[in-house]
Amino acid sequence: MNILVLSYIYPPDAQGGYELGCKQAVDALRRRGHNVRVLTSTPRTPVRPEPHVSRKLHLTDIWYNATRPVSHPAVNQVWEVDANLFSSHNVHLLIQEIQDFQPDVVYVWMINGLGGLGLMGCLQYLGVPWVWHLMDEVPAMLCSNNWHVVPKLAQAFNRFISGHYISCSETMLRRIRAKGVILDGDVRLLPNWVTGRRPAPRTRFYNSGELRIVSAGRVTRDKGMDILVEAARILRDEGQTNFSVDVYGPIVDRSIPELVSRYSLESLVQFHGSIPQAELTRQLSEYDVFAFATEAREPFGFAPLEAAAQGCVPVITRSCGIAEWLVDGVHCVKVQRDARSFAHAIGDVLGGRIDLAPIGRRGQAAVWRDFSIDVIIPKIEDMLACAASSAQEASGDFDDAYRMAVIAERLAHAIVQEPFCA
Fold this sequence. Notes:
Number of helices: 15
Radius of gyration: 23 Å
CATH class of the largest domain: Alpha Beta
Number of domains: 2
Mean pLDDT: 92
């Protein structure tokens, strides 16, 4: 198949698991003989050119925190239109790519920042079949203004957008529906995955001595890094010091490392910054527990799955997306999302009340049996083929699609700026 992939950014220009997952899926599809072309944004830092990757879309980086707080509210509103709703520039480039590449199907990933609603409207109008891989609440985000879903935009989405969806969790689907956005069409659940060579079954598990705990991800409160620091403080205050916590990932919220200093936890908790994904994967086998105190809205999370693949036992928020796919006490340990619950679980490991060995062995076996990309990619391939086979006669004209994008963009700009011009 000719598969055109849409993603707001693409590695090595990356932020997290969503875009890394996109690249892994692209690489797997190419290995299986498909002709895959990626259409993504101009990189924020220089990257080496790749023949199958076209980096020319404009990204409106609404997550760039250094600019947004000091910009005029009208400017922020226009940026949000360009990011979520309409970018005629990006619609024009998408149309060119469709004309040049003639895809059998478009494989859509994260498209916030690209005028994603307009891109989906363009595909729908032109009758180009698509599969949308959701690892976050992207449809709801695209129907939003000021970070809240606009009911009329949601109604328009529900009426006009219909196709094929892959979701990494039912948790995320429920949250999208709760915001008034309905995914019409074929919706299938597929978990995230692990890649690479399967290691030998782990044989060394924690028995006594220092318990090595690891966490990875952006150092923010929504990822629960503050909860892990508070849990370490609780354990220390209870007299438990035979553990260490290593955190890998960019420090976004500096108040969290400051907690370590405030509580004098420097000997127990350390922040190591970002390291290459391959290096982190290698190091996971040296740890006993992967602590994942993320918020309940977390759609899935690659990191605890990667930890389990190395026999490192995930201790995770009970209600996050990955919790749907793993069994408490069998593949992982699930707890409430608060510092005392995480401290209690770690204390149970230290006290011998939780035996990590059988959980680690079962978790590692289950991940490589059920969550390897080699198991998941044929299911994605089947979904793409199903969408491609349902293609209809082109129902819209390329020139008309672009004209409508220009009109929609200008109208949206005028509407959001009007209150500031009175």
